[in-house]
Amino acid sequence: MRRSYSSFNRTRRSQRSNCRPKTSASDITKVKRITLLYFEVNSLKTYCSNGSGKLDPSQKSVVFIHGAGIDHTTFVLASRYFARQNYNVYAIDLPAHGNSSGDPLDSIKMMSDWLYIALNQLGVENTALVGHSMGSLISLQFASDHSKMLRSMVLVGTSIPMPVSDPLLNAAKENSHDAFDMANTWSHSKAAQLGGNENPGINMMMSGQRLYERSKTNVLYADLNACNNFTNSKELARNIVTETLIIVGDQDQMTTPVKALEVANTIPDCRTLRLNPCGHAMFAEQPNAVLDGLISIV
């Protein structure tokens, strides 16, 4: 049964206190494990949000991987929901993104290898993996290399291959604000650009703009270039053995519905969820519909 984010948020205050583990000086190691925010990967500080929930080895896990030039905040509503359903939530900032330090990684393969190290560091296994946009390519590579670590996978706003237009790639290379403008505009459907939001008090277009503007210099270009150069995705998709859900926005201009459906037809054990009207920013435009899809497989 669907539980909307609006009704879910009404109980946040009462639930929040139940999600905070009690701390004590003698239990600091355990507390760090339970209330994880930062950990180290390759000696670099890495940020991981757990949706304000608790981490418990007896619970199921779900890992969220964000898209190009953005960070874990893409998943804030979904991660809070699953945290309150007693899942271990790991919404990780890739190197140089959000609150994580380091330099951006140069390829999707490098990002997947980095994720493998990160999840081993966290002790995560048998997890659901949710990737948005560039994160969907990372998830695809990860599922190809480490299928035994996954029980299911969700690809949101995906495409194989995932070419990037020259105007966007060149603007990002020059660190021009035009890159943010293009990416943000093309990420939202026509309906979303007119205004309105299922999340009260939030302007989708401005939120997306600010999210891109928070990115560090050269990060968006590095990410887009990695997507553009990821050319063996079809071969990987044919060999995926993980149960997969692909969520498609019918007005997605960043990764077109036609390309997303090609992915679905290539992965053996795969089904689709189509959202209309919806663009590439599905977690913002259709949060409840996306949540319903995630609940069905995560």
From TrEMBL:
Residues 61-286 form the AB hydrolase-1 domain. Keywords: Hydrolase. One of its GO terms (molecular function) is monoacylglycerol lipase activity. It holds the Pfam family Abhydrolase_1. Residues 16-25 have a biased composition (Polar residues). Residues 1-25 are annotated as: Disordered. InterPro entries: AB_hydrolase_1 (IPR000073), AB_hydrolase_fold (IPR029058), AB_hydrolase_sf (IPR050266). One of its GO terms (biological process) is acylglycerol catabolic process. This is Alpha/beta hydrolase.
